[in-house]
Amino acid sequence: MNDAPGIDTSRMKSALDKRVAELERLLESFADTRTDTALDQQRIGRLSRMDAIQQQAMEDETHRRRERELALCRAAQKRIADGDYGYCTACEEPVAPKRLENDPSAMLCIACASRAGAGG
Q1: Residue 94 bridge partners (DSSP)
Q2: 78-108, pLDDT tens digit by residue?
Q3: Which of 7, 57, 87, 113 is least surrounded by Cβ atoms within 10 Å, i.e. has the fewest?
Q4: Where are the domains of the chain?
Q5: For the chain, what is the HEC assignment?
Q6: How far is CA 89 from CA 22, 29, 93, 94, in A?
Q7: pLDDT in the model for residue 33
Q8: What is the per-residue pLDDT for 38?
Q9: What angle is formed at CA 68 by the lines to CA 17 and CA 36, rounded to 5 degrees?
């Protein structure tokens, strides 16, 4: 299969490469900046502990979302390399160029994304 018509694959590849590099940098720095919540009740008060736990949970969720986005971007890079970029991975119909402009890692057309309820 060749890349879908009407898509500037080189520009999409460049956008994906840039985002992958940014995500890798952010994920690397996560280990250095992650807040480990101490639950020692003698050291900090209850409200401070609750705030720290909430902060850690938000950091962990951000990290998880970045890992997922990185996986999606790498999958899109592979589709470009394989010549399958711009086609829905579910129905194999072309993905709208504007959808890819908005999200170069999109792997589903609007119809399939709506059915899946994922937007992916």
Answers
A1: 87
A2: 999 999 999 999 999 999 999 999 999 999 9
A3: 57
A4: 9-85
A5: CCCCCCCCHHHHHHHHHHHHHHHHHHHHHHHHHCCCCCCCCCCCCHHHHHHHHHHHHHHHHHHHHHHHHHHHHHHHHHHHHHCCCCECCCCCCECCHHHHHHCCCCCCCHHHHHHHCCCC
A6: 25, 32, 8, 9
A7: 64
A8: 53
A9: 110
76: pLDDT strictly greater than 90: yes
Buried b (16+ CB within 10 A) or exposed e, 13-25: bebbeebbeebee
d(CA 98, CA 110): 11
> Identity (one letter) of the amino acid at 10?
S
Res. 58: pLDDT tops 70: yes
* Angle of the 46-82 helix axis to the 9-33 helix axis, nearest 10: 150
Q: Is the dihedral of CA 14, 15, 19, 22 positive or negative?
A: positive
